[in-house]
Amino acid sequence: MILTTTRRQALTALGLVTVFIICLQLLAHVAPSSSRRTWANLDEIEVDEDPTRIYRTSKVFSESFEHALDDIPPHQDPLPSSPNSNRINSSKNSKPWIFFVTPTYKRKDQLVDMTRLSQTLSHDKRIYWIVVEDREMPSMRIRWILERSGLPFAHITTLTPEGVHARGVEQRNSALQIIERRKLNGIVYFGDDDNAYDIRMFRELRKTTGVAVFGVGFAVGHYERCVVDEETGKVARFATNWVGGRMYAIDMAGFATHSSLIIEKQPRFRNDWGVGQLETRFIGQLVGNLTDLQPLMENCTRIYVWHVKTQGGRQDEVKNDKEWKRLSSLV
Ligand SMILES: *[C@@H]1O[C@H](CO)[C@@H](O)[C@H](O)[C@H]1NC(C)=O
């Protein structure tokens, strides 16, 4: 009896010691290395305001930074910014590339938006992500997200000039310059970081031959879309709450352009265009008429892209039940 108890206690003690040792080993192997990484990362985030310090302190990334402001190479060349460039190069896949242009700037929800976007885009392996930061030097936080996405990418920067309120104008122009200069062949799409994208959209985008248009949903429960003439199959008009004298009354997220048209026409956005005129005036440089537009997403009847943030509306409030019901049938 006494012997049995002692043995049981001894076994329990042995078991506890084993568990303790395993825990110690786990801590020794896992905790220090992961916390080291975390600390290093935190340090680099803190020096974010001084990019030259990141450059000096981050050995791993200093090489990438040397290339960060370079032009990106044509897509058939090695893509030094992508960890998976070999896979892309050796791919026999002939699906057209999508050049997904995302201007971004420092704000409280930048990382939320960029994380979500990167994980949407990484569902599709033929996306070249062109991210243009509104700052002087590329930031580490964005570089990490780009690296983790596994996508080939260009990480460049363009500062918005002093006194200019329109965001994204100069940044999109920089991306256009790259596409033209490198004669990139594929579909150009201006995909802001604060939208939500249905991955079904990518397959549709690849049908773009000139300028393609499609509907955009808004989180407050309304939508804008092109309307197709059933007889001709051409775009006849746009259904929107606000026309504002626009010929092409479509949102930035509601159109795509084949890069050959960009290379031919060299269109640009301009800071001095009025509020809400960016899209229509940009498209005006590419086509001459509504009927030149190619309707996508099942003749503009499906919503595959959403504006998550909208001004002038509480997001938990659906203002128009009829439109909400209709919108719900479009997804
Ligand atoms: C779009 O509309 C045209 C004309 O009504 C029709 O011929 C075509 O099949 C439609 N395409 C799709 C994808 O629904």
From TrEMBL:
<dbReference type="GO" id="GO:0005975">
    <property type="term" value="P:carbohydrate metabolic process"/>
</dbReference>
<dbReference type="InterPro" id="IPR005027">
    <property type="entry name" value="Glyco_trans_43"/>
</dbReference>
<keyword id="KW-0464">Manganese</keyword>
<keyword id="KW-0479">Metal-binding</keyword>
<dbReference type="GO" id="GO:0000139">
    <property type="term" value="C:Golgi membrane"/>
</dbReference>
<keyword id="KW-0808">Transferase</keyword>
<dbReference type="Pfam" id="PF03360">
    <property type="entry name" value="Glyco_transf_43"/>
</dbReference>
<keyword id="KW-0812">Transmembrane</keyword>
<feature type="active site" description="Proton donor/acceptor">
    <location>
        <position position="279"/>
    </location>
</feature>
<keyword id="KW-1133">Transmembrane helix</keyword>
<feature type="site" description="Interaction with galactose moiety of substrate glycoprotein">
    <location>
        <position position="224"/>
    </location>
</feature>
<keyword id="KW-0472">Membrane</keyword>
<keyword id="KW-0325">Glycoprotein</keyword>
<feature type="glycosylation site" description="N-linked (GlcNAc...) asparagine">
    <location>
        <position position="299"/>
    </location>
</feature>
<dbReference type="InterPro" id="IPR029044">
    <property type="entry name" value="Nucleotide-diphossugar_trans"/>
</dbReference>
<comment type="similarity">
    <text>Belongs to the glycosyltransferase 43 family.</text>
</comment>
<protein>
    <recommendedName>
        <fullName>Galactosylgalactosylxylosylprotein 3-beta-glucuronosyltransferase</fullName>
    </recommendedName>
</protein>
<dbReference type="GO" id="GO:0046872">
    <property type="term" value="F:metal ion binding"/>
</dbReference>
<dbReference type="GO" id="GO:0050650">
    <property type="term" value="P:chondroitin sulfate proteoglycan biosynthetic process"/>
</dbReference>
<keyword id="KW-0735">Signal-anchor</keyword>
<dbReference type="GO" id="GO:0015018">
    <property type="term" value="F:galactosylgalactosylxylosylprotein 3-beta-glucuronosyltransferase activity"/>
</dbReference>
<feature type="binding site">
    <location>
        <position position="194"/>
    </location>
    <ligand>
        <name>Mn(2+)</name>
    </ligand>
</feature>
